[in-house]
């Protein structure tokens, strides 16, 4: 595969880190920041520079990895150079129809919502494309994002806001809970290093057990929660404080905000 990234930020870097491990993959990055280009060239041994090619190849894959606020200008700049190449956009909030309009009616587009664990090869990405996109292009998009984790296609583009609320923003929720468990450990008298390790190892082990066992999380929780025991006391307090409800409400608020920002961005850049 020949892949060109427009933008060389953190998420682009994470995806590139997975792709360089694949055989027969040629990568280049178009990035105006000279220091960033030098870093990418040094670390990954790929091509990077500030200049767009005069024309992209029809077999090329273009990954739009710039900020949503910059996307319209970038799309308009690359539109006459596309030559029917496949385009993946990882910019949040910008729909396929809007991208197509900015790209002069281009149709080979996949919208992607990755997340930050892609930096360690454990991301999960939501993908959406119109029904007209070929199976070959869908397979190519899946292969690219599988290089940094796993993928999940959605049939309705509105579900991309839900993907944002669950997995896109989800790592922040997990970090929030790790932070809370670490702070609880500190309150129980552990020093910082001990509290951090207790919290991290507990989350790592619990996720691994849930993944390997394949059992419902509620059942796994029940296995640890003896009647009248210590864990039950903690769970009862969590229920009294509305922890689960607060998490679900926060996810709903996140989705609503994603929808709002998408509408604003699309309206402002119409």
Summarize the structure.
This protein is α/β, with parallel strands linked by helices and 270 residues long. The protein folds into 2 domains: 2-161, NAD(P)-binding Rossmann-like Domain (Rossmann fold, 3-Layer(aba) Sandwich); 170-256, ProC C-terminal domain-like fold (Orthogonal Bundle), CATH 1.10.3730. 54% of the residues lie in helices and 14% in strands.
Walk me through the structure.
54% of the residues lie in helices and 14% in strands. The chain has 270 residues and is α/β, with parallel strands linked by helices. The chain has 2 domains: 2-161, 3-Layer(aba) Sandwich (Rossmann fold); 170-256, ProC C-terminal domain-like fold (Orthogonal Bundle). An 8-stranded mixed β-sheet has the order 3-2-1-4-5-6-7-8, with helices on both faces. Helix 6 (159-168) packs across helix 11 and helix 7 (170-187) crosses helix 8 (192-213).
Provide keyphrases for this structure.
Rossmann fold; 270 residues; alpha/beta; 54% helix; elongated; ProC C-terminal domain-like fold; 11 helices
Which of globular, elongated, flat, extended, rod-shaped describes the shape? elongated
Q: Can you count the beta strands?
A: 8
Classify the beta-strand content into a percent band. Answer: 5-15%
Structural class label: alpha/beta
Radius of gyration: 21 Å
Helix share of residues?
40-55%
Helical segment tally?
A: 11
Separation of termini?
Answer: 33 Å
Placed side by side, the strands forming the largest sheet appear as 3-2-1-4-5-6-7-8
* CATH fourth-tier homologous superfamily of the largest domain: NAD(P)-binding Rossmann-like Domain
What CATH calls the topology of the largest domain is Rossmann fold
What number of structural domains do the residues give?
Answer: 2
């Amino acid at each position: 595969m020949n892949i060109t990234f427009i933008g060389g930020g953190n998420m682009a870097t994470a995806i590139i880190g997975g792709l360089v491990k694949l055989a027969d993959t040629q990568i280049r990055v178009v990035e105006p920041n000279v220091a960033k280009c030098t870093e990418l060239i040094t670390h990954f041994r790929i091509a990077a520079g500030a200049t767009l090619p005069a024309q992209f190849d029809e077999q090329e894959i273009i990954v739009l990895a710039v900020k949503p606020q910059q996307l319209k200008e970038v799309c308009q700049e690359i539109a006459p150079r596309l030559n029917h190449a496949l385009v993946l956009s990882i910019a949040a909030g910008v729909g396929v129809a809007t991208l197509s309009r900015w790209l002069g009616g281009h149709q080979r587009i996949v919208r992607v919502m990755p997340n930050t664990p892609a930096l360690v090869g454990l991301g999960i990405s939501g993908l959406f494309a119109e029904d007209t996109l070929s199976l070959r292009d869908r397979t190519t998009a899946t292969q690219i994002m599988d290089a940094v984790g796993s993928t999940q296609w959605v049939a309705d583009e509105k579900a991309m806001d839900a993907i944002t609320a669950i997995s896109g923003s989800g790592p922040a929720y997990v970090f929030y809970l790790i932070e809370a468990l670490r702070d609880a450990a500190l309150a129980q008298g552990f020093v910082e290093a001990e509290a951090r390790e207790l919290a991290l190892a507990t989350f790592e082990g619990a996720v691994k057990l849930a993944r390997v066992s394949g059992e419902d999380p509620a059942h796994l929780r029940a296995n640890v929660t003896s009647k009248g025991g210590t864990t039950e006391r903690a769970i009862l307090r969590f229920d009294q404080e509305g922890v689960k409800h607060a998490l679900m409400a926060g996810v709903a608020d996140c989705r609503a905000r994603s929808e709002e920002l998408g509408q604003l961005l699309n309206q402002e850049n119409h």
